[in-house]
């Protein structure tokens, strides 16, 4: 009797799962043996080589090399075991049927990593990143091409695709898709993803996303797309692809991910380990200030949003000037001019006495070392100052030792007196030594303020006052980082080869220039959405400034929210281009409640709509509104958690958070808890509302005790339900 498709597929899965189990057992046994040999070799080395001089040194060196080789083998085998264990959990998720070079049909199974048949050594499962696996993600059947490592293209005929849901050796679902998208197929694979941390999307990558993921490491990409188009997911799969494709020259230590917050970094922290890769380095733009070591306290991005929501015209004007393309160009020109004039230096003093004058430093910079680049001139000056400091410290040390020895009473041995003198001299000259080492005899603040002066004297004056207090606004970080990276070049990190920046629409052109200067050997993948703006003040559009330097890719399909929520979202910003591939669900609900019934109705809504395991968030415009909401509601909902900027660990449950912190996340249910016209009353708030609404995957509630803001009041009544 002929087997059904299901039976054949289950039999194949059982065979593969059994082979993977045997391979895991072999690796575990080999690792155990290797571990014992490492322990034995270490024990031998420690007992045999008490003296490592003469001929023994040669033997000891050979043993060390052997130990190092054995330990590297052990680590590689451990990594292989981890990948095999991941593969065992989900052996594969897809299959393509092609015509091979012999004219025969061949089934190629696609999974998280490569696995070879234990008997024939043929590839039984192809890594999703392998060149031929790209065929699985192409939106077509029939003749297709894929790139091979030497750059050539191979042509094959694709007869069909099959997708699977498997769990260890259990076949849960088999889906045929001649064209790899079909709403039905995709939606069966895409569950409500808002219930947990972000997961990998290797089983559901679409052809437009695939093109981005597999782009060359040497290509600078600017990826723009609407909410739910998978930008962040694509970024994570791209990192995994780069680590696979360039594994001989690129490791996790060579890739940097710059994201909106530490909370968001935690949210995406499971993706690369799920794919069998180590997490890459990650940071935020704010934290770059600490990484570089500039001696300032600075406002965070979230603090900046809070301040400028309520700022006066002068503060707003300062922000506009500092984040403008015009100022970025002015600052670049001001730094170029430093080659010939106007490099500002401090007078260097110790205990009120002049150690090196600004006049002397200017002479060295523009006369003695004039032929060198800026940073080399400064490093030559540093060498001179360090030699002078060494002489000064030696003289001071000798003088202090003599003083201590001349004391009539006993104060210690000669060694103790020398140690005491060393301690005192180190304390006296420690800050100076650090200043010289980090080239802080350059007055970077003056370079910054002078460039501002060329555009607006009032902005320059207010900024100079702030810098004297050693306090930076968030918009001050980029200019000072850029100056440090281009003038001193001490903080440049040449080991970073690729940088991924999410939510690029939140960055100014000067922020981008600063990062490009800090990481001169890196290529970039930037991801963002022109319409998801949460800052109260607009910046000059960044994507226009980068068009000549970047390959721009526009994603238009959204997979996150129900069609009903996406339609409501598009009604807020009609010009936003979004093709919804979501499922149909409940319409958004608009609630008009009286102030006296507000809390009671909130509690009732939670009781009816919140299920343990869901992610359910109340979003208010700012921190102040969230705190007021929390104080009002939490006594009635003890499980409610207030998320603040200090939060570093992602959590699900019943949450309340400011709108600007919600961007980048997705939630099963979103409640806009303060939809008052008085709160969202200007043009910038329209994009904020758009962003808030786009966070919901399945359920959206709009709550107001007054009239709705214009952006919501204008929405066609057929797109929502009145609560």
UniProtKB/TrEMBL annotation:
Binding site for ATP: 225-232
A Pfam family it matches: UvrD-helicase
Signal peptide: none
Single Gene Ontology MF annotation: DNA binding
GO BP terms: recombinational repair
GO cellular component annotations of the record: cytosol
SUPFAM superfamilies: P-loop containing nucleoside triphosphate hydrolases
Keyword vocabulary terms for this entry: ATP-binding, Helicase, Hydrolase, Nucleotide-binding
Name recorded for this polypeptide: DNA helicase
Organism whose genome encodes this protein: Caryophanon latum
Lineage summary: Bacteria, Bacillati, Bacillota, Bacilli, Bacillales
């Amino acid at each position: 009797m002929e087997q059904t498709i299901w039976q054949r597929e289950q039999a194949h899965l059982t065979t593969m799962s059994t082979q993977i189990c045997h391979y895991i057992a072999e690796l575990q046994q080999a690792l155990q043996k290797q571990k014992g040999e490492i322990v034995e070799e270490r024990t031998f080395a420690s007992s045999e080589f008490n003296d490592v001089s003469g001929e023994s040194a040669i033997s000891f060196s050979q043993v060390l090399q052997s130990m190092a080789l054995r330990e590297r083998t052990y680590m590689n085998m451990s990594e292989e075991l981890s990948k095999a264990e991941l593969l065992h959990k989900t052996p594969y998720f897809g299959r393509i049927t092609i015509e091979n070079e012999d004219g025969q049909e061949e089934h190629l199974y696609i999974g998280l990593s490569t696995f070879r048949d234990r008997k024939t050594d043929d590839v039984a499962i192809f890594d999703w990143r392998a060149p031929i696996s790209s065929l699985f993600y192409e939106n077509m059947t029939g003749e297709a091409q894929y790139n091979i490592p030497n750059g050539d293209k191979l042509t094959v005929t694709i007869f069909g695709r099959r997708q699977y849901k498997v769990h260890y050796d259990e076949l849960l679902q088999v889906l045929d898709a001649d064209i790899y998208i079909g709403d039905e197929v995709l939606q069966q694979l895409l569950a409500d993803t808002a219930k947990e941390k972000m997961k990998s999307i290797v089983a559901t990558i679409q052809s437009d996303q695939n093109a981005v993921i597999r782009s060359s490491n040497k290509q600078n990409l600017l990826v723009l797309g609407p909410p739910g188009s998978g930008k962040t997911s694509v970024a994570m799969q791209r990192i995994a692809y780069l680590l696979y494709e360039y594994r001989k020259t690129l490791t996790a230590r060579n890739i940097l991910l710059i994201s909106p917050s530490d909370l968001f970094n935690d949210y995406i922290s499971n993706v690369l380990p799920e794919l069998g890769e180590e997490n890459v380095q990650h940071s935020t733009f704010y934290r770059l200030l600490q990484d570089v070591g500039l001696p300032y306290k600075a406002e965070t991005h979230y603090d900046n949003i809070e301040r400028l929501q309520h700022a006066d015209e002068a503060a707003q004007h300062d922000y506009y000037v500092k984040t403008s393309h015009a100022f970025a160009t002015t600052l670049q020109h001001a730094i170029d001019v430093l080659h010939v004039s106007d490099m500002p230096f401090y007078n260097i003093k110790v205990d009120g006495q002049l150690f090196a004058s600004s006049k002397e430093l200017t002479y060295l910079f523009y006369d003695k070392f004039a032929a060198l680049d800026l940073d080399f001139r400064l490093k030559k000056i540093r060498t001179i100052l360090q030699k002078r400091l060494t002489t000064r410290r030696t003289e001071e040390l000798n003088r202090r030792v003599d003083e201590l020895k001349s004391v009539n009473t006993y104060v210690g041995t000669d060694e103790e007196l020398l140690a005491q003198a060393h301690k005192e001299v180190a304390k006296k000259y420690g800050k100076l030594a650090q200043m010289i080492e980090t080239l802080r005899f350059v007055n970077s603040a003056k370079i910054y303020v002078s460039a501002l002066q060329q555009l607006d004297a009032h902005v320059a004056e207010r900024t100079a006052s702030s810098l004297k207090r050693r306090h930076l606004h968030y918009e001050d970080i980029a200019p000072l980082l850029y100056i440090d990276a281009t003038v001193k070049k001490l903080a440049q990190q040449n080991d970073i080869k690729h940088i991924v920046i999410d939510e690029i629409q939140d960055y100014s052109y000067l922020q981008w220039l600063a990062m490009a200067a800090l990481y001169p050997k890196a290529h970039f993948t930037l991801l963002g959405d022109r319409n998801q703006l949460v800052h109260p003040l607009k910046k000059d559009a960044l994507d226009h400034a980068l068009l000549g330097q970047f390959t721009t890719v526009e994603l238009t399909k959204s997979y996150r929210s129900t069609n009903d929520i996406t339609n409501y979202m598009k009604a807020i910003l009609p010009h936003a281009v979004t093709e919804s591939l979501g499922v149909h669900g409940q319409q958004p609900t608009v609630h008009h409640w009286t102030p006296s019934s507000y809390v009671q109705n909130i509690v009732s809504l939670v009781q009816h709509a919140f299920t343990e395991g869901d992610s359910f968030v109340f979003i208010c415009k700012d921190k102040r509104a969230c705190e007021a909401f929390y104080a009002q509601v939490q006594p009635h909902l003890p499980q409610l958690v207030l998320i603040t900027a200090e939060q570093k660990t992602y959590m699900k449950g019943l949450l309340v958070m400011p709108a600007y912190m919600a961007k980048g996340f997705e939630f099963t249910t979103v409640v806009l808890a303060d939809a008052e016209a008085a709160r969202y009353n200007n043009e910038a708030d329209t994009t904020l509302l758009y962003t808030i609404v786009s966070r919901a995957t399945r359920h959206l509630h709009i709550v107001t005790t007054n009239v709705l803001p214009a952006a919501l009041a204008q929405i066609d009544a057929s797109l929502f339900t009145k609560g």
